[in-house]
Amino acid sequence: xxxxxxxxxxxxxAALFTIGVIGVLTRRNVIIILISIELMLNAVxxxxxxxxxxxxxxxxxxxxxxxxxxxxAEAAVGLGILIALFRNKETVQADEMNLMKW
Amino acid sequence: xxxxxxxxxxxxxxxxxxxxxxxxxxxxxxxxxxxxLVVTLLGVAGLYLHxxxxxxxxxxxxxxxxxxxVLFLFVIMLVNLEEAxxxxxxxxxxxxxxxxxxxxxxxxxxxxxxGQEAFYFAESFGGTLQPNTELVALALYRDYLLPFEIASxxxxxxxxxxxxxxxxxxx
Amino acid sequence: MWFHEHILSVxxxxxxxGAMLLLLLPSANKSLxxxxxxxxxxxxxxxxxxxxxxxxxxxxxxQFLEKVEWIPSIGANYxxxxxxxxxxxxxxxxxxxxxxxxxxxxxxxDRVKEYYIYLLILQTGMLGVFMTMDFFLFYMFxxxxxxxxxxxxxxxxxxxxxxxxxxxxxxxxVGSVLMLLGIFGLYFWNHSQTGVYTFDIPTxxxxxxxxxxxxxxxxxxxxxxxxxxxxxPFHTWLPDAHVExxxxxxxxxxxxxxxxxxxxxxxxxLPMLPDASRDPRVVSAMVTLSLIAIVYGxxxxxxxxxxxxxxxxxxxxxxxxxxxxxxxxxxxxxxxxIIQQINHGISTGALFLIVGIIYERRHTREISEFGGLSHVxxxxxxxxxxxxxxxxxxxxxxxxxxxxxxxxxxxxxxxVWAAIGVSGIVLGAAYxxxxxxxTMFGTLDNEKNKTLxxxxxxxxxxxxxxxIWAFWIGLYPRPFFHILEKPVQxxxxxxxxxxxxxxxVASPAEAPGPxxxxxxxxxxx
Amino acid sequence: MLTEYFSSVxxxxxxxxxxxxxxxxxxxxTDLMLEKGQKHLNAxxxxxxxxxxxxxxxxxxxGIQYMMAQAGVREVEAFRGAIILDTFGIYxxxxxxxxxxxxxxxxxxxxxxxDEQRGDHYAIMLLATVGMIFLAIGMxxxxxxxxxxxxxxxxxxxxxxxxxxxxxxxxxxKYLLLGAFSSGILLYGMSLLYGMSxxxxxxxxxxxxxxxxxGDPLVLISVLTxxxxxxxxxxxxxxxxxxxxxxEGAPHSITAFMSVGPKAAAFAFLLRIFMVPLAPVRELWLPxxxxxxxxxxxxxxxxxISQSNLKRLLGYSAISHAGYMMLGLIAxxxxxxxxxxxYLLVYMFMNLGVFAVIVSMRRQDLIGDEIDDLxxxxxxxxxxxxLMLIFLxxxxxxxxxxxxxxxxxxxxxxxxxxxxxxxxxxxxxxAVALYYxxxxxxxxxxxxxxDRTQLSLAPGVRFTLAVSLAMTLFIGxxxxxxxxxxxxxxxxxxx
Amino acid sequence: MNFLEQIWLIPLFPxxxxxxxxxxxxxxxxxxxxxxxxxxxxxxxxxxLGAVVQLASLSERSYEKILxxxxxxxxxxxxxxxxxxxxxxxxxxxxxxxxxMILVVTGVGFLIHVYSVGYMAGEDxxxxxxxxxxxFMFSMLTLVLANNYLxxxxxxxxxxxxxxxxxxxxxxxxxxxxxxxKAFIxxxxxxxxxxxxxxxxxxxxxxxxxNTVMGQAASGRFSxxxxxxxxxxxxxxxxxxxxxxxxxxxxxxxDAMEGPTPVSALIHAATMVTAGVYLIARSSVLxxxxxETMAVVAGVGAFTALFAATIAIAQTxxxxxxxxxxxxxxxxxxxxxxxxxxxxxxxHLMTHAFFKxxxxxxxxxxxxxxxxxxxxxxxxxxxxxxxxxxxTFFVAALAIIGTPLFSGFFSxxxxxxxxFINPIGSGTLLYLIALFTAxxxxxxxxxxxxxxxxxxxxxxxxxxxxxxxxxxxxxxPLIILAVLSFAGGWIGIPAVLGGSNHLEHWxxxxxxxxxxxxxxxxxxxxEHSHALEYMLMALSVGIAGAGVAAAYYFFLKNRAASxxxxxxxxxxxxxxxxxxxxxxxxxxxxxxGLAMGGGEKLSRFDARVIDGGVNGAAWLTRLTSxxxxxxxxxxxxxxxxxxxxxxxxxxxPVRLLQTGLVQTAALSILIGLVVFFSYFWLx
Lengths: 102, 171, 525, 495, 683
Prior knowledge:
The complex is a heteropentamer of chains A (102), B (171), C (525), D (495) and E (683). Chain D is mainly α. In chain D, 76% of the residues lie in helices and 2% in strands. In chain D, strand 1 (75-78) and strand 2 form a beta hairpin. Chain D is globular, with a radius of gyration of 22 Å. Chain E has a two-stranded antiparallel sheet with strand order 1-2. The N and C termini of chain E lie far apart (101 Å). The longest helix of chain E is centred in the C-terminal third of the chain and has 57 residues, at 601-657.
């Protein structure tokens, strides 16, 4: 039985990516939306690492590291803003952020 | 026996990851969501191990689980989520959202599947992934030195920003 | 001599310099500002008079050439020059511009400084359009004018000024941006032929393009110019703009701005796109629109209750004559149409001044409000009479010369067109005389009118130059024809190369030469 | 140890970025030791930093351009091809430096009014500028990506900088969520690019892609996802919805900042990606871009009409401008790209000019971003009103203002490449644009003022206005040097 | 001095007067005004006299004075494809024809000016009146002296405007200004014809100069009855019907009587209305070459003569009677031209100028005496009270009905005779019409005489109270005109009466080519015996006598008869009505809704049918322009509004889309992505 073809990893990542997307689109809780974004980024990482494994080059892994860094940064700032918002508005629901429209 | 096991390993992990993901985005309580995120991330880390990316797996566990998820948990504790948990969980547009996401998945799948035969990746230059940590270090400090430096700035900004925004009053 | 070489630049930028000067003056001191503005624009007029002496009608082509490299990377130059056509229009502009400034002395009371600055900027823009020999520069000036005009209407206008102003702006803008695309078309065709990028108008006027491309570009130009003229379906901005604009605005609008469209047809459409302009479909379409405009404008103005609106619609009719003259594509038609442009500037400009004078006194333009004014304002009545007569084309006044020559040219191409055009003259008499009768004749029953003062010296001075010019063209138009002879011939030779040729081959005895026959049949369908 | 891999050239190329970073840190340090009253010195220091960066870049002794000219090289690679400093990059770096400097000048007064005068603000602006620089000169996916994140995260923070203002919070959070979302999509595409080229170097990717069979699903997926991600960054429809909110919610000075620098950077990024790695599959993304461009111009212009908030209106106008610039990419020839370059340059000046006026509208008792706040501005402060008029005309693209030159090349390129219909649509939208810009003009010139208080134009604002006006008119009336510059610039990324 | 050299000055004297009046007239003392204005005309009369005398001494009896090229138009292609240049001089031509005209115009004009000094005294705007009057003289003289059609057209339009102004002179009378407008519009319609005629002329001959045109026409290039020439002459004739008040465009003339009486005398009797006749005479060659047109001209002329005369019988307003009489007499002249008797036409034009001017001025004097009364039913028995006026009026009355030895006799009989023997044919019928008209003329004029000057006085008391003869400044012109009306015809005594028709010979060089052309068409120039001519003369005199007798019987002897007559007349008319239903048709067609009241049937016919037609046209015009306004405001402008509104409407779905919710935004991003994919999937 041959090793797992990379295509499967791609399928997996696509699936995880979609799950993340669904989370972003459907959940009201901003925190959970942020979590879903983390899922999307992980999907990307799966791709990268799978490729790097297949191509026998670590660049993909390094790329993945940077993605993780980015994820950390975004999470930090996002949560910071969320806290600021929560101070003013006492809510974490995405659809209650409706001051500006049209 | 040598290959069956890893294959099985992959599919189990895939199951864990996807399952974890689905559960994560369906939790009512944000804390649970974060916990289940940890499960997913662990699955991914396992996958890294399986893909001979030990260092990355370590990073995944340390940074992601040890850092980011904890950060999430802190915030969750910080902001009061009772009524958030009690309220409606899904935005009004969820059916549409899911439909579109499903469409996206289908299309991605379709294109990946359709191109099965054309579906190959660049051929390896006969490199190697072992010893993983050294190689990663070399890449990180040679080929990717610049992004690495930028990353430092990025984290700096994130840190300052988080402080500036989240602190109650600065003076 | 420097001055002689740069006379055009001087004439063109003098008003702008004046505007800059006004910026420095304190806006509180109205009379000083008024005085300065008047002096500046009058100086501008005087300087432009030098052109009259220096312009040599015998050598065709452009004169007073100035050419400075401006944007070499796209082949645009700062190049000025005038031939007979633009010469006349430049003179018209400087005069009308001055009169516009003069007639606003007492009409404008608030934000005086701004007002005159806009007027002067507008003046520079208009002069630039007529003087430039570079298409890129032309487009710049063409657009620049819109802004001050917009403010003149929008700030000092009547009750519906905002609507009128933006309508004017958008209409013309839509036209000009489409025209811009047309310009690009020429630009690239020239490049594809010669390998050089240039906006030089004479160069672009000597290209040979495939007919279909010409038609497309013609369409683009048509929209731009027809809206400006305005030709029949595009004319609805005109009444609004005129009625709402302050007197000076209307005068400039009617006197100069409308001419830019027709000037565009003459300077660009015909020479640059000869085959398209000659195309029977195009000709018949243009002529049809013109004839509709003539009759339609006259009929509509016949029914107006608003004095100013009546005049506005009358210029739709008059501009119809001009476009008609242009698109019969023969020397008399074109010559006449240019003369008629001047005439329209004089007569309609003066008519708006007339309206402005009475509006300033009564603050209404309802014709029914007036009647029997000739008792209280005899001089006014006399001047109005002369202007009205010149506008309805009474011989010995300017209007007749233009209309007669245009219609003669039309008759040469197609009898029916001419007959319809002539009917326009009859109607013209109808609405103007009716207007004159309702306002000047009859009994002086309205109390408010009993105390009206006759026009003062300043108002008299605003009208008298136009009256003199009207008589000049009416009694001794020869210099004008002489000035136009060469440029018109150039245009006709470009549009109908065989016009003069066929004529010569056919001997008096026999029937029209074959080519001429085709011409006839071509343009009669 | 490093010298084994890196020469001094590598760091020479980075000099501007490094200087900015150092000064950013410096600002944060000094901020701690400054009294409340002296906080302006932060801004001064930041400006000094930009000054040094500019000095280290410019065509004078000691400047990089000078050295390049001396050495007669048109482009310098560094960090093993991770970045490449070419005319294109330099041009954009200049835009970033100028726009940041001017925005900082605007911020000084604004932060005073908001009572948020702190050093970190300027530090973050500088770091954002660093990010932009890497977007302009990066030749490597990872570098570009990190530069992008550095920039956008800084902008998120700045957007949410008014912690007590809910609009600011919301704007920042929305911007961040959507930005992260789109980054995810972008990354997904990038990962596939890596997968099919075994490299993150754009040129290698380009060759790899050109070797793929056509209709290759991987290429397709990556192109589509990357396109979507990039279009998000420039705020093209339907990826635009963050933009109006962010514009409206952000502090005035930051709106000015983000409407210029990051936008330009995003376009630099976009151009790099589309002109280098994705060039081989042009026929793949061209139809998408055409559709998106039309949608962008349409929606941007039409929704701007019904706005009552000036910043939001400018947001939508920014969307439509992005649509116009995309047209240049669609034409894809040198004229088009040149058009984009010039467009960005003039857009910077006219936009900053407008925002300078808006910033000076801000008072303790007045946010001043509603159109009606401008009522009768001509009475209150004629200068500001006239300048505003000129900038708005320039935005609408009426000659002889700079805006016309920008649009000129865009339309020119469309005619040149026979996109006639697109050209007609584009020019007609100019009229629509004029309509809503002139709604503002009407308010300024033809309404009675609500209050007759004079506008207080702070020195920083004055300077910004002066520069913007000068450039808007100069480029409009004598564009030749800039056209030359742009022509020279685009050479380096054209195939 | 050489007057021929100076003919260009002749129109300029009045012009100068006019400019003076209109610019500073208000400040000038009345006395000065009344000195200047008649003075200028007098001077030009003297110049004319001198010029004519000198012309007589010339060999070829034609002198052309070109001042400068007035309209140097561009080149154009003529019908035969040659290039020609549109050029018209500001130049004057003095030949026998124009010499006669200028003498009449300046002479009669001068007298009327003098008369006006008395008549208009007391009016306000005195100076303006004289200014316009001088302006008119300028136009009229330009008209007759022009050496090309374009310059003629200048005068042609000019006189129209002046009549508009002079009719509208009584500003305060709405009816007056209406009449003025009506006059100008009617003329304008005619002018359109003239303009087109000139275009055709340019196309055919390549020029509008008399000499060129006539020369080419006579050159034999064109066969008689050439379609182009027929069309050309017809177009010109449209203008003539307008100017010379022929059917169907004559309607303006009666209304024009709203103007002051001197104006009616000068413009609407002596000069302007004769311009049409002059134009035909001027283009005699062209007309001679277009027999079809000639037929039309003759027919219209004869019909107009009869038609107007019949109307005149039924009028009570003294000026209207004269107005219709003018129309009728103009008919005579046009008829004369129509039968190729151009000389006779001009002859009658001259004599008519004398006696009709006299009649009008006399009427004016009567009105003046009765302080403004114009209705003949309120006059009577004025013979003694205003002796000079009545005597002179008597002379004029005799002249117009063609009493032997009076001027009218010679001119009218010449027309009748030449009509009878005209070479073109259908002479007899035309002759009978003309003859009958002569009878009617006598009838209505003497009806006027009797009602005004004889019988019992019906003058109202206060009018009676200050009834007075006019001042000498008014009566002297009357006397002079009376002399002319009596003796004016003697220069045209036909050979048959032992005279040698001087006028005929004087005009011969002008009409020779025309007569040749006609002679060419005429089958045989049959020689007619003098006996026949004597007989016809007697006949016409007899008819006139009968007319006078009838007038005497009905309107002086016993008026009861006239009442009976009126009733029986109406009976006859009703009979005709029932027979032809003409009126029903007309009423239904034009005058719908208007009740048939009492009053004179014929004037009703005039008022309702013709004016009704005019009104109907006006109504149609109003309708169309209403429609076009509607179109303008609703369709075209509407489109603009809709598009403006459409923009707002369009921005509405945008608002729906832009909910401002972060997840909608994310969704739209995703949708965008999905659409991208689908595009390639479905492609």
